[in-house]
Design goal:
The protein is an alpha/beta fold. Helices cover about 45% and strands about 15% of the residues. Helix 7 crosses helix 8.
């Protein structure tokens, strides 16, 4: 994946569709992908995905983190696949059966609809959850890294394409799950920026060098005074980490 723009996903964490469409139109020339999360999807509904495509979004990551019984997960994933999204996710903690059924449903639905099958990614541990929360509130013993690896292996064995995982876990996941397993890292913050509500973060260079394939960046770009310039600065960091010369548009 030599093009740095193929590795960057901009989180459209907006409460309304108009704001998201404006940001998409501004950043689409950079060639990045766009993430639609719960807030925006609930506010605007499934039809909004087509509006985003009209605004220039060539690749959409539908970040709804499906977590339910296997039959419900399979149905939800199939509906999203028919909408032609590039990537979607579900919780690994839903269990191996839900993940297996989801993977089968996504590929079958995409085939029926004549669209490319989406990348199906499992959520391991949310970047807002630290070791103390995992242990004291959720009752998961042992190091957080051990739990992340357990869920990553479960997702791989269930037939998923990869996982969403914090940057600090990317290296161990890569070693455990192999080179073909996709790692998507949220909670990315450029060096020196505010970590805000993220418990475990990485800079773009740290995440890429640890083994992440895709980086999700939201507020450091979308709330910057010049979002396009902030986007290109992160692309420069990705290019530096991956040893790729970045060709910026004229």
């Amino acid at each position: 994946m030599r093009d740095p723009a193929r590795r960057l996903i901009i989180a459209l964490d907006f409460p309304d569709g108009a704001s998201a469409e404006r940001m998409t139109a501004l950043l689409a020339p950079a060639g990045v992908a766009f993430k639609v999360g719960l807030e925006l999807f609930v506010a605007e509904g499934p039809a909004f995905l087509e509006r985003l495509k009209d605004a220039g979004a060539g690749r959409i990551f539908l970040d709804l983190k499906f977590h339910d019984i296997p039959n419900t997960v399979a149905g939800a994933v199939a509906s999203a696949a028919r909408a032609g999204v590039w990537m979607m996710n579900l919780h690994a903690s839903a269990g191996s059966e839900a993940m297996r059924r989801g993977a089968q449903a996504a590929r079958a639905a995409a085939d029926d609809a004549g669209v490319d099958p989406p990348l199906l990614i499992a959520v391991t541990v949310l970047t807002s959850i630290g070791a103390e929360t995992l242990r004291e509130e959720l009752g998961v013993p042992g190091p957080i890294e051990t739990h992340v690896l357990r869920l990553a292996r479960l997702a791989r064995d269930a037939g998923l394409d990869g996982v969403v995982a914090p940057g600090p876990d990317a290296s161990s996941i890569r070693q455990t799950c192999g080179p073909g397993f996709c790692i998507v890292t949220p909670g990315i913050r450029p060096a020196g920026s505010d970590v805000q509500d993220q418990a475990r973060v990485n800079t773009p260079q740290q995440a890429i060098r640890a083994g992440s394939d895709y980086l999700v960046v939201g507020r450091p770009v979308t709330q910057a005074p010049d979002p396009l310039a902030a986007c290109h600065a992160i692309l420069d960091e990705i290019a530096l980490a991956s040893g790729t010369a970045l060709q910026q548009p004229d």
